[in-house]
Amino acid sequence: MSVFPKGFLWGGATAANQVEGAWQVEGKGVSISDICTGGSYKQNKRITPVLEEGTFYPSHDAINHYYRFKEDIALFAEMGFKVYRFSIAWTRIFSTGEELTPNEAGLEFYDQVIDECLKHGIEPLITISHFEMPFALTAKYNGWVERKLIDLYVRYAEVLFKRYKGKVKYWLTFNEINSATMPQGNLQEAGIINKGTIDYMNQVDIPQLRFQALHHQFVASAKAVQLGHAIDENYQIGCMLANFTSYPLTPSPEDVLANQKAMQMSNHFCGDIQVRGAYPSFAQRYFDENNIAIKKIEGDDEILANGTVDYYTFSYYTSFCQTTDPEELAAGNVFGGAPNPYLKANDWGWQIDPSGLRFALNEIYDRYQIPLMVVENGLGAKDVVEADGSINDDYRIDYIKQHIEAMGEAILDGVNLIGYTPWGCIDLVSLSTGEMAKRYGFIYVDRHDDGTGDFSRKRKKSFYWYKKVIETNGEELSM
Fold it and tell me: Which domain of life is it from (predicted)?
């Protein structure tokens, strides 16, 4: 028998800004993702607050999911999905974020998406904010730096909670909220632009602004959790973090301590606040050493304490090593850390470490003792369409197989894991590089980095393999 529990939520995950397109249709406003240009492995995205003629903005069309969601959800159902994680584009509901009345056309679109999922027996898992806040809020307030965004977000969340009551059970307040603990998380998570037209991954960093913005998000999330529970006691509202599992590069005490500090701020800082309801003690020294002073108002601490999440979700793709040796750190990838000499890497330098997922699941569950879901995991790769039309992505099957096995081991370890939604279950625009060439999906989309392609869909070899995995509840993993 499978080690995965009965009713385990197998599925897949996408984000509105990376699949929908239709960027200015039926009242949708401009989001922060709409001002990011296309990129490549060698040249990351740029931010262009004023749209440039002749420049490629991949989110404007993405994979045309806005017009093809019924076809896509039918394909998900063919694979046997029990859950589909997707996000709602804030700018479809409130164009600038400050309107008093929501956009009915946007609400009706998500009515259709949700109803299509339910028709196929697929549970919707909705991320309320997934790297696509209204750009108007960045331009006017520099994003979450301004406390006013708390009320704007809560109003937006309230509209969703009331509109989809009785249809949706699972919600996530923010995507990878802890990315704002890193300098390159400025725009994508906190909506902060500290310079004009610049490299997306190389902004001018002001830690005080990042962490103040993050505090406002914590308060907004906690308020949303309380509000959601008041609207529907059956709502399960969770947090979502990017997991940065890391190891000491050497057994030296200095490397061990460096790794501990890295794990505390990258993983536990946000988790402790959203699950335990208070800032962890280790954060104060970090704040002191980086000249960060969080400005709170009366009642903030009580809001955090009373707005803790019901379950914990996270993304897991890779792991890192930490060291005090600057030369080793310089050899690492964009996320920081040093390469692990025991691991292989994909074409984009992300090292493959399924054991790190088991480590993460055990560490998180031991710390928080609430249900867990892995809501992003997968392999970005350059797929090749063969002459006969087939796409033989054995490398993707192997990657996901190893990570499912690691999840099974974690369940045997005692972890309460309730679901798994691999990232980019259908090919989509890569967030980190703005590429289509970096493909994750079980479903191939005919769309390319030069803007060509007819958006047609094609099942990859992994499509049929994942279908079998779901049918057997994770028991049958052979190719």
Answer: Bacteria
